[in-house]
Amino acid sequence: MEKGVLMKKIIVFLACFVLTLSALSAQVSVDPNDRFYQEAQIWEVRGLIDRLPQIRPYPLNLVKSILETVIFSGLDEDGTLTEHNKADVELALYEYERIFSKPFHVQGTGGGIIGLQTGRLTADTNKLLSDPRGTSVSKFLQGKGAVVGDVALHPLVSFSFNIGENGKIGSWGDVSPMYSNYPYDAIQDAAEVGPLELYFDANSNISVGTKDLYATAGMSRVGFGPFLGEGLCLNETSYHSANMFMNISSKFISFTTLFSAIGAKTNYGDDNLANDKYFAMHSVRFNPFKALSISFYESVVYGGRTDLSYLIPAPFMVIQGLGGNRDNLQMGLLVEYSLLPNFRLNLDIYVDDFDVEKLAKLKLDGKNRFAIQGGFLYTPPASACKLFGMTYSLVTPYTYTHWQCVSEESGKIIGTGFNYQNYTNNGINIGSSLQPDSDRVAFTAQFQPKKNLKITLASSMVRHQNVVESLTDAEAARYMIEKAGTYRTDGSIYTHSMYSAAKASDAGADHVDSAWSKLLFMSGNHTMYSCQAGVNAEYEIPSVKKWRVTLKFGYTFEYVHNKGVDSVLYPGDMTGYVAETQEDGSIKFAFRGVKYDSLDEITSRADVQAETKAAYENWVGKLFDQVNNFFSLSVKLTY
C-alpha cells in the first residue's frame, strides 16, 4: 500500500468515527472471543500499546483507543509511515473498518463438523491397540442469525449486543476434541422442529466511563488474565453469565472487580439447573516498572442465599469469615514479565487450599489444592508469523471442587441436591477446561500472511488421572455401600473430598481421609493421555456490495490413550446401609441384615471388598484407545 493512500485512509477512518458517535460495530465489546483480543495482546507484547486491562471484553472507547494507538505508532513525527510497523498499522486499519464502518450489522452463520472416531480396547495395558472396537461417524450442523453491534451513545457510554436465534442438528460432544467448550451460549429450552433444535441466543453489555476508568453490566462471557481462552480464574470459552464489573487503570497500579450471577447444577452434574449461585473476583495489579506486572487476585463461588458482601472492595478471606468460612474461596498470584523485546513470560499460581503445617516443613504431600499455568509468548517482528507460544498447566486433585450438603445441620450429601459451591457455571468449568488431577503442555503458532487471512497451528498433550483410583480400599468401599447416584466418582470437578454424614446427628459431612492428608497428584495406576494437533484457517473475502464473507476451515487430529479413565469408577450399586438409633441412644448401622457399630466394619467385609474390587476391574476392562479426526467448515455473512 502506498504511503499517501494509507495516510488518507487513516484520516478518513478517524474522522468518520469522531463524526459518527452512533456507529455500530461488530460486537467486539460483548464477545471476549473476538479476534480483536488476540491482536491486542500481540500489540501489547510488542510494546505498541500500554498494558491492557485484565478483564475482557472491553468498552468501545477503549477498543477505539487501542486501534488508534497502533495506527499512529507507525507514523514518525512528520506523519510518514515507518516500515517496521507497517503490517500492524494495516491490520489495525483493517480492524477499524470491520468494527466501525457500518451503521448496523446483520449476521448469518452456518457450518458443520464431521467427526471420525476409531477405538480399540486396551484392558491389557501391555498390549497396544488389541481387539477392534469399531469406527463411527458423527455429524453436527450449526446455524445462527443475529443482529450485532456496539453503539456509542455518548463518548463515555456504549451499548453492545448480539441477539439472534441459534439452531443445531446433532450433538456438539460427538464432534469436539476433549477439553473444548461449546461456542454458543444457548443450551436449554429448545424449540424442536424435527431434528432441528432452535435456541434464543443473546448477549448484551452497557459500559460507562473512560478508557481507564469504566464499569460494565450485562450478559456475556468473561475472560481474565494473559492466557486467552484458558485462564485459571476465568475462561472466556466458558458459559455466559450476568455480570457487573469495573476496571481502574493507571501507570503503576490497577484494580478490577467482577460480580456474576451463574447457574447451579446438582452434586451429580445432571441436567437440572437452579439460580441463586454467584461468582465474584477482584484483582490488584502492580507495575513496578514497564517490563514487570504483578497481580494478586481472589475469587469465590457461593450461593443458596442472597449475599452482596463480596461487592465490597475488601479481602474475600475476611468477608468469608462473616459467614463462617463456608464459601469456595481461592487466591491467585499472576506475574507477567517482558524478558526481551517481543517476548513475554507469564506465570499464574492459583491456590484453592493448602496445608500450612506441612508447607512450613517444606512438604508438598498434604491437603494442597492448586493450579499452575506458565508459559511464554513471542511475537516475531516483520514476519508472517504473528505469534508463537507455549503453555504448561497443572491442576491438582480436588482443585475447583466443593461438596454441598442438604443442610448445614445434617451434613448429608445427595446427588440430586444442587451444588452452589463448585467452580462451574451451568455445569461448565468457569476456569481451566482441565479436570482435577491433570496437566497439559500446549503449543500454538499464528500466521497472518495477509491481513484478511489467519492460520493457526496448535498442538497439546494432556495427562489425566481419576483421583478415586488413588484412594485406599476402605475409602473406595465407602462409595460402594452408598446408594447409587449419591456421588460422582469419575474424577471430574464433581468428585469432591467429602462423604455424606454417616448419621443425621452428625454436624457435618465426613472427610475422605486420603484427600485431607495427601496431595495424590498422578498417584494412580492408569493415566489417560490426550494428544491433539490441528490447523484452523480464517479468510475474509473483501467486501462485496456491503457484504462481508468470512470462511473458516478446521482440522484436528486427536489420539486418546486409556479413554474411560474419566468415567464413573465406583457406582455405589450395593444396598445402602441404614443408621438406626437404639433404645439406649447409640447408633447402629444395619447392612444386609447385620448391625454394626461403625461403617469401618461394613467396608472391611469380604463381600464388600470383593464387589469393590470387581467394580474396579470392570472399570479397567473398559478402558480403550481412540483415534479421532474432526473436520469443520463454516461461512459467516455480515451485512
Attribute tags:
16% helix; single chain; 18-stranded antiparallel beta barrel; 28 strands; three-stranded antiparallel sheet; 10 helices; alpha+beta; 639 residues; disordered N terminus
Could you describe the 3D structure shown?
By secondary structure, the protein is α+β, with helices and mostly antiparallel strands. It has 10 helices and 28 strands. It has helices spanning 3-19, 35-45, 60-73, 86-100, 316-321, 356-360, 473-480, 513-517, 599-603, 606-621, and strands at residues 55-56, 105-121, 132-154, 157-169, 191-193, 196-209, 213-220, 223-224, 241-249, 253-264, 274-289, 292-303, 328-340, 343-353, 369-378, 385-395, 424-425, 428-429, 438-450, 453-464, 498-499, 510-511, 528-544, 547-563, 578-581, 587-591, 594-596, 624-638. It has an 18-stranded antiparallel β-barrel. A 3-stranded antiparallel β-sheet has the order 25-26-27. A two-stranded antiparallel sheet has the order 1-8. Helix 1 (3-19) runs parallel beside helix 4, helix 3 (60-73) packs antiparallel against helix 4 (86-100) and helix 7 (473-480) packs across helix 10. The chain is globular, with a radius of gyration of 26 Å. The two termini are 26 Å apart. Residues 1-25 and 123-132 have low confidence and may be disordered.
Q: Cα-atom Rg, whole angstroms?
A: 26 Å
Helix content: 10-25%
Shape: globular
- Secondary structural class: alpha+beta
For the report, how would you describe the main beta sheet?
18 strands, antiparallel, barrel
- For the secondary structure, the number of strands is 28
Q: How large is the share of residues in beta strands? A: 35-45%
What is the first-to-last residue Cα distance?
26 Å
Total DSSP helices? 10
